[in-house]
Every structure is written in structure tokens, then in C-alpha cells.
Amino acid sequence: MFEESKNQGGIAAAAPEPAPSNAPSPQPAAAFEPTSPPPPTTPVPPTTPPGKKPGKKWLIAVAVVLLLAAGAVYVLAFNKGTEQTTKTTIAKADTPIGFDTDQSSVATGTSGRSALKGFQIAIDEINAQGGVLGSKLKPFTLDDKADLPTAKENMQQLINQDKVSAIVGPTNTAIAIDVASILQDSQTPLVIPISTATTITQTYAQRPRNFIFRVTDTDINQVRFLTAWMIQKTNNGRIAIIYDTFPYGAQGQKDVSEVLSRWGKTPVSVQGFTKGATIEQLVPLFKAAQAAKADAIYLYAYPDQIANLLKALDQIKGYTPTMTAPLADTEPVVAKLAGSLAANFVAACSVLPDSNDRTKALYQKIVQKYGAGQPEMFWPAAQAYDAVYLIAAAMKAAGTTTDKLKINDALENLQNVQGSIKLYKQPFSKQNHEALDVKDQTLVYWVGDKLTAYNDPKLNNLEIR
Description:
2 domains; about 40% helix
């Protein structure tokens, strides 16, 4: 089939003459052995008789021969280069994926650095398995240093210069709220592993597409969980609030008051303080709670301020209320600044290194890659790790690693994606861009410099409103 039977002149080709009987039998070619055409024969320049001076015609002939030889070399080089170019084109390009967190500040740099480690481990694992749809994930990582202008520049760089298909980050709530518009306007999926402000994923919920997703416990869900536990712990006791008047604490105070109203309760004391307040200035806040006979106090402040609050309460002898604080106060700086007093409050987070077999394995991989004492915080690492796997699953489901609209739509329709924290049966939907629910939390507290599970039988029958 497809065999030529005639030459260009239309005359039948002559059959080859039979080989002599004593000729050796032809040997089969080696399997998949590449064959190359023989190199063109280089013409031999004419010679002149001995003792005779070369004439003009002879010199022209030599020049022609040299030009033909040079042409043959060029053809070989061109053909070789063409073959290499073709092979490079066939290989699938890497898929850029972005990461931006605070990795430098005292208050939140620890969580940002920890998230980076989980992010990188996930990419290492996925690439070791061949990548996504045959394309390796190529990380582009930046540090915004908890600075809003820097965070904006970083997001623009990741989107416009690095051409990422999705971004994991940032750390700080105020930054996440502000840069969300950049991601939304550029139609780039953002999966947040740390920032907890309740409204972040809801701002663009009414748009045809919402590009902001999250894998962390929201502020309101933390409040619901901790408030339910405080009410049960104190037998429906009296609850006070002490908060930082900075926007983070102010919104937290509103959330706690709103959740208490679901229980038909109002806080018995609400005391605010400004950033930088001294221990002496904080003592009266606890005395007010004591005077109001508060059985429990919800502290709402950043890690460096929590330490001073704990030291202020320590000056009031005989008053030991149950106390809770938000996820931000699981930063190791709290244990460093407050010492043994850090054990006097309970917080909530999604996961610890020994929560399940997958978290144990992830923890060990981080230690092997980055050394003992890493990660500094585990839950940000686990949540960033899971964020990468959710993005990769969306790319696979969408059938593309570069079409951001299709990837975004696929995120909203994912099912049964295994992460380190849990099996995400349906992590997101059109209406819900929160992968973790209120029940995906556990109580934790500081024992020395280690965040440890706070075991309380009351958690088994916790009613959450």
C-alpha cells in the first residue's frame, strides 16, 4: 500500500537484479534505531600540474567547491537545529502558580513562612507525579512583609509578569480585603490559606464570577465555636469582651456580640483598648469584667497584645475566668512573650500535626525538607498545602492549566478532593467559597512553646449557633 510503481516519466521501474548466491543475507535493523541520511559528499577541488601556476579558471573552480561544501555543512546544521526545536515544542510548558504572604513581620510572619512550606511540599508532590495534565507546576513566591503597597505590587507582578494561573495567599486580613479587587478584576482565582475576616469571600458573591476562595476558619465560625464552648463550659455563665479597637478587634467584638444574641445573651462587660496600651492600662479592663461577675472573657486582639493582656490579668489575684482568643493568637510569639501565662486561654484551629495520618506525613516531609523545628506553625502549612491540591484538582477537572475562567468554574464544582485536613467532599459551590466549616475546628492551647489539643468532653455534644 502507498508503494510507488512508476517513475516520474511514467515508465515502470525495473525490478532489481537478484543477488549472487554467495552474497551475505541482509541483517534486520535494530528496533527503534534512528537512522540518518549519509552526509553529502564534499567535492574534491581540481589539482594543477606540478610546477605550473594556477590559472583564473582553476581559482574559480576551487571557490565553487568551497561554497558547495559550506552549503552542505549549513544544511546539516539547520536540519539538526530544526529537529531540536521540534522536540522542545512538543514538551508541555510549566504552569506558573503564585504565592504571596507576609514572611517578615513579627506579628504574622511566622504563619506566612509556615504556609510557604506547605505550599512548596504540595507542588513537589504533584510534580513528582507528573504534574497536572502533563504540565509541571512552577511556583512564583513573594513576601509582602505585611505592607499593603508591597502586597499590591506583588499581586500585579504575579498576574501580569509571571502570568500565574492562580494565587495562594495572603496572610493579613486588611491586605486580603484590599487586594481581592485586583484578583477579581484580573479574573485570577485566589485561594486564601490564612486571612480570616468573614466578608473576604462574600464581597463579590453577586458577580457572575467570584474569584475569591478560602481554606481557613473564618472569624465568625471561630466565634460561633468558641462562644458555644464558653457557654457550655460555664453552665450558661456571664461573658465579657475585651478587644483591640483596631479594625480587626472592632469587627471581632461585633461578631462576638452578634453570636451571643443568638443565645439570647448580651456581654456583661465590653472594654476596648488602643494598640500599644501598657499592662497598667489594661488592668482596669479586667477589673471591670470582674466587677460585672464575668465567668468567661473573649479576648480579641493580635498576638503581641494578647501577651500584655495575660500579664495584666495576672496582677488581679484570685480572678481566673475562662478565656478564649482568635486563631491569630496561635502565633508562637504569644508563648515567647507571655511565657507560662500563654496556657491561660483557649483558641480554635483546624488541625495539628498529629490530627491524622496525612497530617503526620505532611509534618514529617516538612521536617525532612526544612529541618527540625519546622514548620513554626502547622495549621497554615496544612491549609496552604490543601489549597494547592484544590487548585490542581480544578485544573484537572477543567482540562486546562491556563484558562483561569474554566479553573475558577471548576473550583466551584469540585468533589472528593483529598487534603491533609480532610476529604473535601464539596469544598466550594457557586454560593459558598469556604472550604472549611465551623465543625472543622478543634480547641488548642499553649503548653510551654507547643500548641496542643485541649481535650474537653463537652466538645462531643457542643451546640453551635
